[in-house]
Write a structure and sequence with these properties.
Strand order of the largest sheet: 1-2
Number of strands: 2
Largest sheet: 2 strands, antiparallel
CATH architecture: Up-down Bundle
Number of helices: 10
Radius of gyration: 21 Å
CATH class: Mainly Alpha
Low-confidence stretches: 211-219
Strand content: under 5%
Number of domains: 1
Helix content: 55-70%
Structural class: mainly alpha
CATH topology: Rhomboid-like fold
């Protein structure tokens, strides 16, 4: 029986600093855009026409830190802090920020393929859904100290609470959310298979002994 897993220990010591730095970067860029709006907004936003036709691929990255207003920013910032703390804390730089940013850029690209040329895609919500998908899936795969059914129910419960919108808003890109979530889940499965030996090595097993082992052994 598995008593402890990789997720039973505390996150890495500097996880809080990484989470705070992530929030500060997004906050700084968003405020900078608002001060120089709309020129800087148009320069940093992911626009299908600019990305696909003029190969301005850097927009897929810069758009992650740009937000339209305070409400938009603070709908994403807590999730960035929460999931960056967990992902860096347990899985390191390769997962967050490196892997998450790559997947978030891919998410934005795939999303832009479905939009008209003049649409401006901004915000970290695609990234937060990548992070959520990765964390919830990897929790199910790693946390073997709990029964599989309980792990699945917990992950589904958290997903419904954190990710299900209270109301449909016309300016929110739900397709980007869905793409990010799917990529995060797929990435978690791939990561688990590649790092399975390391993940399992962190497990502590509880060995159940028979109550009476003093009697004769019959061959």
């Amino acid at each position: 029986m598995v008593k402890r897993t990789l997720l039973s220990r505390k996150p890495a010591e500097n996880s809080g600093l990484v989470a705070a730095a992530s929030a500060m970067v997004i906050l700084f860029v968003s405020v900078l855009v608002w001060r120089d709006y709309p020129e800087l907004f148009r320069l940093l936003a992911a626009v299908p026409e600019r990305v696909m036709d003029q190969q301005e691929y850097w927009r897929l990255f810069s758009a992650l830190a740009v937000h339209s207003n305070w409400m938009h920013l603070f709908s994403n910032l807590p999730f960035v802090v929460f999931f960056s703390y967990l992902l860096y804390g347990y899985f390191g730089f390769g997962v967050y920020p490196l892997g998450v940013i790559v997947l978030s850029v891919v998410t934005n690209y795939l999303s832009l393929l479905t939009y008209s040329p003049e649409v401006h895609l901004v915000g970290a919500s695609g990234m937060t859904h990548v992070m959520a998908g990765f964390w919830l899936a990897v929790y199910i795969l790693v946390e073997r100290s709990l029964p599989l059914k309980k792990r699945v129910m917990r992950s589904l419960g958290v997903a419904l609470i954190l990710l299900l919108p209270n109301a449909v808003q016309p300016r929110v890109s739900y397709r980007t959310h869905a793409i990010g979530l799917a990529l995060g889940v797929i990435a978690a499965a791939v990561y688990f298979q590649r790092r399975k030996r390391w993940i399992r090595a962190a497990e502590v097993l509880e060995i159940e002994e028979d109550e009476d082992v003093s009697g004769p052994v019959v061959m």
